[in-house]
Amino acid sequence: MKKILTYLNIFVVLISLLCLYSFSIIHIERGGTRFGSLTEPIKSFYEFPKLAYAVLRSNELWGNPLDFKPRDPNFISKNELTYDVFSLHGSFDNKNSLWEIRLFNLKDDSVHYEWQVGQEHFDYEGNPIEFFNTDLKNIVLLPNRSIVFRFNKTNNVVRLDRDSKLVWRVYDRFHHHSINQDHNNNLWIGSRTQRPFKSADGRTYYYREDQLSLYDFSTGERIFNKSLSEMFQENGMDHIIYGHSNHINSYDQPDPFHLNDIQPLLTDGEFWKKGDIFLSLRHRSMILLYRPATNKILRVVQGPFINQHDVDILSDNKISLFNNNATGIGSKRQMSEYGTPDKLQDSFNSSDVLIYDLMDSTYSNSFKKFFDLEKIYTRTNGLHQFLSNGDLFVESFEEGKIFILNENEIVFKKQLDTSQEDMIYLPHWMQLYEDINF
User: Fold this and answer.
1) pLDDT reported for residue 92
2) Helix and strand numbers, DSSP H then E, in the chain
3) CB under 8 Å, gap of 24 or more: what pairs does 201-210 form?
4) Which ranges of the chain have pLDDT less than 50?
5) pTM value?
6) Which of 81, 226, 227, 356 is most buried per CB count within 10 Å?
7) In degrees, to the nearest 5, what angle opens at C-alpha 99 toward C-alphas 393 and 208?
8) φ, ψ (nearest 5 deg) of residue 144
9) Is-contact 127 118, C-beta < 8 A?
């Protein structure tokens, strides 16, 4: 009997410790600090299995760039292009330990120009990633065969001349997503800091503060900077900052905006002036028209799109956007306390590209059938570009595939090859050029 009581006591103690451990995880994940100096060690302990799993699967461990992905063996390439269309793509040269950027023709894969990016172009300070493990994102062709790009998941934005020599480098803050030229050739780039606020419980919390940064084309000097929080507050829209969440007590949503595109207006139009910018905020499923010159939000666009990327200008009254059609709500666990689940109503099977008319606030989409047919779907990133003949270029990031299609057929589809036969590159926010004047 004494042995049974001993085992029972041990069992009760173990169950109690397990309950305490479970409570500590929930408490810390919701931003609690009751465990004082033990908070961080406890968090490191329960996150270790996830970290170990991520390390074992990481491209860094295997010596590959971040955006390597296993090739889809069932994917069938197609190339029926009858016209020239050029793009820029970076690949890592293991032999020479440098990145090569190629300007190539999608029609025949011919290379028209090359740049080399060495470690001397990369600043390591404050960057958590190695030169050979990053990748080159959003490479933009500038006048005189100069280029600008950013090293992914680092602070580095770099401009090189036609001979691959450094013109300037900016690395004083974290930069992300798109790079776009305005009417003066200056460069709009999203940047990020962190912003604190004090809650009613007296604690200080932090979130990612996206900023609109404009850099001088010639020198790399930052000539304009505006935080999104300040922009919303000064336009009487504080609710956009703090009023959207999935759980009010979690404090685990540190990325309220997720700015992913700053698209400048190059000419005057009926609804905008030259120098205005369109902004794409993924985590608000929102497009904004903003005038930096007067600090005024001119238009807020929300509609039949979810967690979108990449807004483009089509005409004086129309814009287009890449609708990821991806959601982050929901639970894998059925909630039995609410009874039997309702009949399945919604499903998310493909992304698409929408055209929005500012004249009458209507949407149209002529390409959805091809997105469904090819199952073009990416939850993150995603890019599109209309060509002068009306064809549509699509970059499906997570799949590692690019397409060109029109309203009748798909004329081009491809995976980006690497030096490893069974691996491909994920596309890097590719911009297309129809006339390079080389």
Assistant:
1) 86
2) 5, 27
3) 203/31, 203/33, 205/31, 205/251, 206/254, 207/253, 207/254, 207/255, 207/256, 208/254, 208/255, 208/256, 208/257, 208/258, 210/257, 210/258, 210/259
4) none
5) 0.85
6) 356
7) 70
8) 60, 35
9) no
